[in-house]
Amino acid sequence: MSKVILQIDGNNFYASCEQMIDPSIKGKGLVVLSNNDGCIIARNSEARKMGIPMGKPYFKLKNKLTQLNINVRSSNYELYGDISNRLMQLLRKNCEELEIYSIDEAFGTIKRPKGKCLYQWGKDLRALVYQNIGIPISIGIGETKVLSKISNHLAKKIQSNSGIFDIGIIQNKDPYLNQIKVDKVWGIGKRMSIWLKSKEITNARELRDMSSEKIKGKYGLVGLRIQSELKGNLCIPIKETTTDRKEICVSRSFSYPVDNLEDLSQAIIKYVLIASTKLRKYNQLSSAITVFMNTNTHSKDLFRSEATGKISVPTSNSKIIIEKSLSLAKEIYKPYKNFIKAGVILHKLQSDQYKQNLLFDAQNIHEELDTQRLDNVIDNINSKNGIDTINWGSSIMKNEWRPRREKLSSIKTTNMENIPIIYAN
Ligand SMILES: [Mg+2]
Question: Are residues 370 and 261 in the same domain?
Fold first, then answer.
């Protein structure tokens, strides 16, 4: 038995999540927009075939999308995050180790029985994921991370592979590595690929076979490691991901510029409430907070400011974090600036099981328990009935500058109210 690396990736992930909750749009063109309905950030394969480009501003393509009858959705990160959690949990059960690499990508390991192709194993996992989560995935199998990435690329590229490829079982990999352009090799950045091309290295096979001295001389261990991984020697180990988060960031762009402290404070309170709810959900406490805000990054008078403050006793209490964040916001706010984005980051997260209190602080335990109970009641009501069913009065936003999400799908997997009703006769 030998260990193999898997690279698993959700196909057109955001678009697939949207299709999963609304099967009526399956088989039709679909694009997903960035925050504030700005640009196209995801497409399904149908929209790609119709020639819709990535990254273009929505307003420029609005008419074309209507003409082509392509469905449009605002990004729904709550939905994508929930589906991603479910996907990773299922993958963790089916792999020996798992490293979550991004919202829709993971590396895993399993053992290969001697000489056995793992195509059928991959096919079963793919079917299991589709049956349980409704998302199509691609699986690349290889001896190393770099090879498993290439394998995944081939899984997508070659139609008959139906989303799975096992390069690890193939003795002569040359015909496959020849198909992979050098800039598609994992870890090769833009500058490195320009240098490689200048040395007439254009594909993965040529990179594997080039002089190690040359690549070491220019890119040191980083370059050497990629080349060694291409040869099948594992150099970049799997980093198992713990579920404990290190920080929580909540930020949004406004639908139009905000220039007064009152509106900014409302936004910041809103973000703190989202972040502290997450903190409690994962049974964590925070002992530091950063507040930031900026004007348009493309404008000449770009203004960006941030401040970080410590919280003396680690907490998950909304009220304490709101108070701290508001004093930070006051500190960094500048009048006559048109802010278009603000956010909060909670850092120094720790488990709520080991809370360290101040030695000489006469904390009122009863008061603390009361505020905890209040937070829990608010969380319970909101999780059963939907976000903002009940919340702090100061967080009520004026609707006009709330981020635009005109084409938002409902969140059928995280909100009781949105669960579809099925009638059976
Ligand atoms: Mg993907």
Answer: yes
